[in-house]
Design brief:
Layout (H helix, E strand, L loop, with lengths): L6 H9 L9 H8 L6 H11 L9 H9 L5 H25 L5 H38 L21 H20 L6 H19 L17 E10 L5 H16 L4 E9 L4 E8 L2 H10 L2 H4 L9 E8 H5 L2
Antiparallel strand pairs: 1-3, 1-4, 2-3
Helix pairs in contact: 4-7
């Protein structure tokens, strides 16, 4: 493919939301609609690009259409392709050499990296300003344009029904993709970064923050509970004996003053157990340990020593459970 045009392969991949190798009408509207073009205009554009009349746009159709309209942008897209490849190569080599550099050289590397970002931002700002101006001007000429509505992104029926239509689409798509992608493919690193960005975007939109409230807590010891985690590995052949001792330990601990909860997590077929204990205070837990040491309860039943960690948390969190 002619240099400067491979970017349309990346555009196609991002527009093809379901990764089926074709851009449908609803995918086309979702990706390309800019709030200025109306429904009839978008339909005409879609049909102009869909030269195979399959009601789907394949890679070759998209590349051919926009390549014919690059104009003065052709040189910019060519430079962007070179820049993208150069940035990828520099980042890969820097990742290999950076850990071995001394502190001064590491500082210089970080400084130069930040300055690259500043220079790229300086190029981006006038482009954004020009793009915003063109959008605003286009909206002023939009008085008689029918806007895109939600129902306009519903799937459209195939022009050629049944198996014949599906076969036709596969043939056209296969021919054009082979001729286009056989010459040059986008940077593998860039593709992976873009896919990661898409996954992160889905994750961010999937998190439900409804009812989330920031808490301004006065972190004094009297207002905190203690969460203690202990991880153990049971010696082989001692599982039954350990479980018996564990049941007694949980019963004793739950009945101790200051103990709020004891729970156990078992990792199947591994011999690993994790105990979670919630205490009213560190002092209450300490007093209990003076009477019943954890390791002494399971003497000769563990394959190795106990791994213990603890953390305090606000009482208000426990009361909400």
């Amino acid at each position: 493919m002619e240099k400067g045009k491979t970017i349309f392969l990346d555009i196609f991949r991002r527009a093809d939301k379901n990764d089926d190798g074709a851009i449908s009408w609803e995918e086309f509207v979702q990706f390309f609609a800019d709030g200025v073009m109306g429904k009839e205009e978008m339909e005409k554009l879609f049909n102009d690009i869909d030269t195979h009349n399959t009601n789907n746009i394949d890679t070759g159709e998209l590349c051919e259409y926009f390549s014919n309209h690059l104009g003065e942008m052709k040189e910019i897209y060519s430079l962007l392709e070179d820049l993208n490849n150069k940035v990828t190569n520099v980042l890969q080599s820097t990742a290999q050499t950076y850990p071995q550099k001394n502190r001064t050289d590491k500082f210089i590397t970080r400084f130069l990296m930040r300055e690259c970002i500043n220079q790229l931002n300086a190029v981006q700002r006038p482009l954004e300003s020009a793009s915003d101006h063109m959008d605003e001007e286009a909206r002023g000429d939009n008085t008689d344009i029918k806007p895109i509505e939600p129902r306009d992104v519903l799937p459209k029926p195939d022009v050629i029904p049944g198996r014949v239509g599906r076969r036709t689409k596969r043939q056209f798509s296969g021919q054009t993709q082979t001729s286009v992608e056989g010459s040059m493919t986008p940077s593998a690193l860039t593709a992976q970064v873009d896919r990661l960005s898409d996954l992160l975007d889905r994750l961010e939109h999937g998190v439900n923050f409804k009812g989330f409230v920031d808490e301004d807590l006065n972190a004094v010891e009297e207002d905190q509970y203690l969460l203690q985690q202990r991880s153990v590995e049971v010696a082989k052949g001692k599982e039954d004996e350990f479980r018996s001792a564990l049941r007694q330990y949980i019963e004793d601990t739950n009945g101790s003053p200051g103990a709020l909860n004891v729970s156990v997590r078992f990792f199947k077929d591994s011999g690993l157990f994790t105990l979670y204990e919630v205490w009213e205070s560190k002092d209450k837990e300490k007093q209990y340990r003076e009477k019943k040491g954890f390791d002494s309860v399971f003497t000769d039943l563990l394959a190795s020593g106990t791994t213990a960690t603890s953390i305090t948390f606000p009482k208000a969190w426990w009361l909400k459970k």
